[in-house]
Amino acid sequence: MTTLRVIFGDQLNESISSLSGTDKDNDIILFFEVNEEATYIKHHKKKIILIFSAMRHFAKELSEKNYAVHYIKIDDKENTGSFHGEVQRAIKHYQPQNIILTEPSEYRVYNEAKRWANDFNVAVEIRSDNRFLCSHETFKQWTQGRKQLRMEFFYREMRKQYNILMDNGQPEGGKWNYDADNRKPLKGQLSVPDTYHSKTDAITKNVIDWVDAHYSDHFGSSTPFHFAVTHKQASQALNQFIDERLASFGDYQDAMVQNEPWLYHSHIGFYLNCGLLLPLQCINQVEQAYRQNKVPLNAAEGFIRQILGWREYVRGIYWLKMPGYEKTNHLNAQRKLPGFFWGESTRMNCISQCISETHENAYAHHIQRLMVLGNFLLLAGIDPDEVNHWYMIVYADAFQWVELPNVSGMVLYADGGLLSSKPYAASGAYINKMSDYCKGCHYKVSKKDGELACPFNYLYWNFFIKNKATLKNNPRLGMSYRTLAKMSDEKIDLIETDSERFLNAIEANALV
Ligand code: FAD
Ligand code: DLZ
Ligand code: SF4
């Protein structure tokens, strides 16, 4: 009897739970590329290329290992264009006794899969996703009885549970977190090693041609395309990061440099999120590099915290709080996303840099996403729906389980402080400290008011003024509100006038 085993485009690993116990003589492994998934939001071209090419390469690998693979390509004549239609077609064709899948990573698709048993009158087994290190149940248990769900405490539990960077039950080096060492700016000192470049083979070329022909109106450049699309290439990308960039990852984690989109980050989020790399593989290799004295502790700990801490934590929050989390808007932000987020001109050099790099690479590093783009969207009061939509489109590593908590929780404070104890609002001074963007900008970061003042400067105070009723009792914002209380009426007037002028100009689609 046949079992149909469904693999989604972000589950590309032979160790995935849905493949466990496969009977290679009888079971069918089903992959489908579907137009609905590529267009329900218009993903960046490079994301679609990555996912389709990685799916095709993985399916080929499985075939070579004698799995019976049924692969539906996007251009197959019979392709119905939806997950639902393709499962239905496969059921008709194979008459399976049951379907096995690993839980889809996104709520939207999970809900769809839960309907299959009823819709198709077939037994459906949904297994938990073993690509993650903390199950939904364990995360839920961790939340029990806690007033606040802070990542730092979750992370410590994960370190203990997995025995990572531990020394006789204590954190390696005596501290759990070396973030204070990880805030160095990087101004014109070093030459930065390049990111990983794969060679484009015939499979990838074929996908690029399809995407160029059919998704030409999607955001972003399709080429040059150099992402890894196989497990071997993704492991090479990881090794290259560990050998060439990890040692400086910690020091320059928050730095931004004009025309340097990649810096010392790992650029592996795309691979982790689609299964080409596994989290423990990355964590173990990085811990080993530290134990072999190849990299300092602040670098290894800083990196491991991102994967063992942040990545697992945001997934936990997502599944704990969906579906309501999608609709949160604690600060009642209502403005539309400015046109320059889609590539129209802006005189704000920091924003222009981060958006053009995002367009080119389907990538921006964390501080660009958080402290330039996100900070601006927070200060300008852009509607969380619009912001989430944008972040889901533009990054190749974007999947809702990780995108949504980062945007609604970390950036916009739309969840009212569940994820972050205060909004990450910052004025131009922060961007100037951590980057060299300001020196090439039309605006003057040192100016606080007037047409030439850096917009982040007045928008920052305007944000605290406009959200006073909601934020003034937050103990972590006490200092900001004390400073605001000491400001003269004239100063407050200038802030409000400049902000109104600027925000009206955005709404009118004028050049700002
Ligand atoms: P590195 O800086 O090298 O970090 C290593 C890895 O740690 C990443 O690959 C990622 O897997 C993990 N990680 C780091 N920070 C986070 C975080 N805050 N949450 C979850 N995992 C983290 N990450 C995504 O994977 N997909 C998204 O759609 C996404 N959207 C984001 C939106 C906003 C507004 C912000 C502020 C952050 C977002 N992040 C997202 C988190 C983070 O910015 C990216 O994971 C990171 O920039 C990916 O680049 P990298 O692989 O070079 O990461
Ligand atoms: C991102 C993506 C795209 C663009 N296309 C497909 C596809 O055609 N088939 C598929 O199985 N997966 C695709 N993916 C990845 C899915 O978005 C991801 O698997 C779901 O969001 C999981 O819930
Ligand atoms: Fe950005 Fe302001 Fe600096 Fe210009 S001056 S780059 S807008 S922070």
Q: Report the bound ligands by name, code or SMILES.
A: flavin-adenine dinucleotide, ligand DLZ, iron/sulfur cluster
Order of helices and strands: EEHHEHEHEHHEEHHHHHHHHHHHHHHH
How many discrete structural domains?
3
Give the end-to-end Cα distance, rounded to a whole number of Å. Answer: 64 Å
Give the C-level CATH assignment of the largest domain: Mainly Alpha
User: What Rg is obtained from the alpha carbons, in whole angstroms?
Assistant: 24 Å
In percent terms, what proportion of residues is strand? 5-15%
Shape: globular
Number of helices: 21
Q: In CATH terms, what is the fold-level topology of the largest domain?
A: DNA Cyclobutane Dipyrimidine Photolyase, subunit A, domain 3
The helical percent reads: 40-55%
What topology, given as strand order, has the largest sheet?
3-2-1-4-5
Give the name of the CATH architecture of the largest domain.
Answer: Orthogonal Bundle
Number-wise, the strands total: 7
Low-confidence stretches: none
Task: Give average pLDDT, whole number.
Answer: 97
Give an overview in words.
48% of the residues lie in helices and 5% in strands. A 5-stranded parallel β-sheet has the order 3-2-1-4-5, sandwiched between helices. Strands 6-7 form a two-stranded antiparallel ribbon. The chain is mainly α and 512 residues long. The model has no long low-confidence stretch (mean pLDDT 97). It is globular and about 80 Å long. Flavin-adenine dinucleotide binds next to helix 10, helix 12, helix 14 and helix 16.
